[in-house]
Amino acid sequence: MSRWLSFLQPRFWGKVGRAVLGDVRYTPPVWPGGVYDSMCRSPGLWAATIVTAGVAIGGGLKYHDWTEAHKPHPRQTVEAREVTGKIADPGVSPVVDGKSVPLPVVLSFSKAAAKLDLVKKDNPP
Q1: Most buried of the four, 27, 28, 91, 103, by CB within 10 Å?
Q2: Are the beta carbons of 108 and 88 closer than 8 angstroms?
């Protein structure tokens, strides 16, 4: 192996790591050991705590689902309808007694344009 690649050898990895990161020392916290000792001394208390927490979380999720299903919904106040219309040409006006009588423009809709109960009129034939 050439000299310039010698830093890749495993015997130098510790030196490179200390050069980059410094002297790293780790000491674990003390509390996990205390929790483990407590669990060994009274496992029933820990089991009851875990079951209570599970029931509380499950009940909270079910309560949330129930409230979402039973909350009031807004009333629909707008009715969406699609109505199309056509305009018919009046055609050529006839002449009666020397005067032209214009024909009416006819509008035809695909559905009733307004609700008849709101207009208070009967539907014309």
Answers
A1: 103
A2: yes
